[in-house]
Design a protein that fits this description.
The chain is mainly α. It has 14 helices and 2 strands, in the order H-H-H-H-H-H-H-H-E-H-H-H-H-E-H-H. Strands 1-2 form a two-stranded parallel sheet.
């Protein structure tokens, strides 16, 4: 009993230390700037944050798939400036997200220590895929400027996604909550209902995963072999997602300036991070709890 109490206390200490680091470290520059200027200077993490945190930017960008802008507008009406909204969101939403991640990890059977550490791994790993990592930045530049590698899709950002205010920061938090509630209720209804109303760059891959899990569950009787059922579920989700995106492109994007942001080809794109994820999965599969292998 004493050993269990000590173990629990150790896990709580790790969790508390990581949580304090998440609150202080990303906001350290803002805190120092506030001390130096009395809050008069505006700070931002991503280059486009000032646009989406301004009153006019939030009013222009507010939409069903950009719901965070309504919250920004509401705070502006209360007299809160964009700089203060930025600092508030950078402290609040990442903390709420990792708290939900921890409860989710416990709900699906991870140990208390894993549930304390894994949420912060999820938040910090995207830092590796940005210009803050000089090795990845060089790889991205080589991919971007090379004809031979131009069909390999690599993500690039100057900011960690969990700290880009207001999106995808808020949507990541909302989808974390939807996932937790879905696991607790053993239902995909909540994830399905929420996914269309979040930031599209987050909602589309999330919906792909949810639809694949849904298909996997619904084909149990027809396809008793798990491996074949996984392949069918992924293929069905791919086709459904591609069809939905094609329809959206035809109705909303084709002929507009936004069409210039797409690669002018019908050839498939190979996902760099998707390939990396498959390699990690192959290396870690034997160490995973059997209940976690199929969802992974």
């Amino acid at each position: 009993m004493t050993e269990r109490v000590r173990s629990y206390g150790w896990h709580r200490l790790v969790w508390f230390t990581l949580l304090c680091g998440l609150i202080v470290l990303p906001s350290l520059f803002a805190i120092r700037q506030f001390q130096s200027t009395g809050g008069y200077l505006f700070y931002s993490n991503a280059f486009d944050e000032p646009t989406y945190l301004s009153f006019d930017g939030a009013r222009t960008g507010a939409a069903l798939i950009h719901p965070a802008e309504y919250l920004v507008l509401g705070l502006h009406h209360l007299g809160v400036s964009g700089g203060y909204i930025n600092l508030l969101f950078d402290i609040l939403w990442p903390v709420v997200t990792v708290v939900i991640f921890r409860r989710l990890a416990l709900a699906i059977g991870f140990s208390p220590l894993e549930a304390a550490v894994y949420p912060f791994a999820i938040v910090t790993i995207p830092v590796l895929f940005g210009y803050t990592n000089p090795y990845y930045a060089a790889l991205y530049d080589a991919n971007y400027h090379s004809r031979g590698l131009s069909w390999i899709a690599l993500p690039q950002a100057y900011y960690p996604p969990f700290l880009r205010t207001p999106e995808p920061q808020l949507s990541l938090c909302v989808l974390a909550l939807a996932t937790y509630l879905g696991v607790r209720r053993q239902s995909l209804l909540i994830p399905f209902a929420v996914a269309p109303f979040v930031y599209a760059f987050v909602g589309i891959p999330y919906l792909f995963v949810v639809f694949a899990l849904f298909t996997y569950q619904r084909t149990t009787a027809a396809l008793p072999q798990p491996a074949l059922r996984v392949l069918v579920a992924i293929a069905a989700s791919y086709l459904a997602t591609a069809a939905a995106l094609r329809l959206a492109y035809s109705l909303l994007v084709s002929g507009s300036p936004a069409a210039e942001l797409f690669v002018a080809t019908r050839l498939p794109l190979l996902s760099g991070t998707g390939t990396a994820a498959l390699i990690v999965y192959a290396a870690a599969r034997s160490h995973l709890n059997p209940a976690h292998r199929t969802p992974a």
